[in-house]
Design a protein that fits this description.
The protein has 420 residues and is an all-alpha fold. Helix content is 59%, strand content 0%. α2 runs parallel beside α13 and α2 runs antiparallel to α14.
Length: 420
């Protein structure tokens, strides 16, 4: 029996709740959202969702393979198996999450979730597309115990769904629940780059694991959380966000003189670098008075980028709707196309001097993808015509909005970000 696509069911609800929180933030004049940061976080979530069409099979296939060696055969129709499966999943998630903070190569993936210098519901959807490589390892105890793949998939979806609502600054501490469950307060502390909050509160649903294994830290009133990571991303490019950690590790491994360092750096404690590399290529980390990154391309360009992102999101839903009826080649091409599209929108927000050229290329790509869909009889000629018309109108709007783009600001200005 196939597990229901619970994540697919709740995505529209998540987006509506993000919009609602954004509106409430504006009405209450709480600067919890910035267009560029929100688009960047949601872009990473979209890339994960779309690429999962290709990568989710890794986790499921390995779980099924390990299940062949299960010690027991636990029945799916027993309520206690579901309780056991959910609790055990969260325990495995705790160690997956903890190692994601403590091992270099795992942090290269998980750091994507922490790169945002804001904290809101859109941060909950900011996820890496690379965890499929190693995350399956941490759930093998469930397979060996005999928890079926069906229970595993549903428990994982429920665990992830729970974690969405804890990414908010609107909800204060929740009294006695703080001792049992992961709450917005405890998870805000988890996202802090302050020394006191670093590498704390790894639980997904239950904070009990952190209290049991000594990684719990309460959110402190006298030490407000500073969101982000110690080595800021300083870009709105989602492709770079997904790969920057690996690029840095590769560079350090390449420059290391010791062959042992070249191989072990990947599995050392997060932040460890060979002494010779650290001395020759020092990394500047954010200080106490760091101002959040904001390349500031201007209001019109930001609104244009947000509008194009909305259109691309709708096209993404269309892709997910038809993906099961298409072949592997179609899915691979579309995953690459959507990733490039979102990357180019990110470049607009980064205020690059070649923004207009980039947008010309992106709009041409939209039309080519539309023609490809038309050839496969996924869309009609009328729909293709509408897509072409939209691309032409977008190009005209882009020419208007980018007349005043600050082309001398290739690296982007550093402006103070949203604060409470």
């Amino acid at each position: 029996m196939d597990a229901p696509d619970l994540i697919g069911m709740v995505i529209p609800i998540w987006l509506l709740l993000i919009l609602l929180e954004m509106l409430v933030s504006g009405v209450l004049k709480r600067k919890f959202y910035r267009i560029n940061d929100t688009v960047n976080s949601l872009s990473l979530g979209i890339i994960l969702t779309i690429s999962s069409v290709l990568t989710k099979v890794v986790g499921i296939a390995t779980y099924v393979a390990v299940s062949e060696y299960a010690l027991f055969e636990l029945p799916d129709n027993a309520w206690w198996v579901w309780v056991l499966g959910f609790v055990m999943y969260d325990l495995c998630y705790y160690w997956n999450h903890r190692m994601g903070h403590e091992v270099n190569i795992l942090w290269a993936a998980h750091s994507v979730h922490h790169q945002s210098e804001e904290y809101n519901l859109s941060t909950g959807l900011r996820q890496t597309s690379m965890t499929f490589i190693f995350s399956w390892i941490f759930y093998t105890p469930m397979a060996l115990l005999g928890v079926s793949p069906y229970v595993f998939v549903v428990a994982g979806a429920l665990d992830l769904i729970y974690q969405f609502w804890i990414h908010t600054r609107f909800i204060p501490k929740l009294g006695w629940l703080e001792k049992i469950l992961v709450t917005p307060s405890s998870h805000r502390a988890h996202h802090g780059s302050n020394k006191v909050y670093t590498d704390r509160n790894y639980g997904g649903v239950f904070i009990i694991w952190d209290r049991l294994f000594g990684s719990y830290q309460e959110e402190l009133d006298n030490d407000p959380v500073r969101y982000g990571i110690s080595q800021p991303l300083r870009s709105w490019n989602p492709l770079w966000a997904n790969t920057v950690g690996y690029v840095q590790l590769f560079k350090d491994a390449w420059h290391a003189k010791s062959w042992a360092d070249k191989f072990t750096i990947w599995f050392r404690r997060t932040g460890w670098r060979p002494a010779d590399v650290a001395a020759k290529f020092p990394i500047t980390k954010r200080g106490e008075h760091y101002a959040n990154y904001d390349a500031n391309p201007g209001t019109w360009v930001s609104l244009y980028g947000a509008l194009q992102f909305v259109v691309l999101t709708l096209l993404g839903f269309g892709f997910l709707w038809v993906t099961s009826t298409q072949g592997l080649m179609f899915n691979v091409i579309m995953v690459i196309a959507f990733t490039l599209q979102l990357t180019l929108i990110g470049r607009l927000f980064d205020n690059k001097s070649n923004a207009l050229l980039i947008e010309n290329l992106r709009l041409a790509m939209v039309v080519l993808c539309g023609y490809y869909w038309y050839q496969l009889q996924i869309i009609s000629l009328d729909t293709l015509s509408m897509l072409l018309t939209g691309a032409v109108l977008s190009l005209g709007f882009a020419l208007f909005t980018m007349r005043t783009l600050n082309t001398n600001n290739d690296q982007g200005n550093i402006l103070a970000g949203g604060t409470d």
